[in-house]
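// run 5 | inverse folding | seed 20
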């Protein structure tokens, strides 16, 4: 099960890195409305799969915060590289 989780996290991480390349404004990286939407969808899925919604809420909030931080770091690197060219 852990292998499957890490495989999915790696896929999500790659998507985040790709998204950072296309986003030009840092505020878009934080997209609070989108975060709320993703968490709401995850909680709905949790309820249909008999998973405790509070657990899913906490996992998703933590995961999203960490991914946003990684995306911001990637975005900063890309901006620094662009300013040197």
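// decoded
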């Amino acid at each position: 099960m852990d292998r499957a989780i890490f495989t999915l996290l790696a896929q999500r991480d790659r998507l985040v890195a790709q998204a950072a390349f296309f986003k030009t404004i840092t505020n878009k990286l934080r997209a609070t409305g989108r975060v709320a939407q993703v968490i709401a969808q995850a909680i709905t899925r949790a309820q249909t799969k008999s998973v405790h919604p509070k657990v899913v809420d906490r996992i998703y909030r933590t995961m999203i915060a960490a991914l946003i931080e990684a995306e911001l770091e990637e975005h900063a690197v890309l901006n620094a590289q662009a300013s040197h060219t």
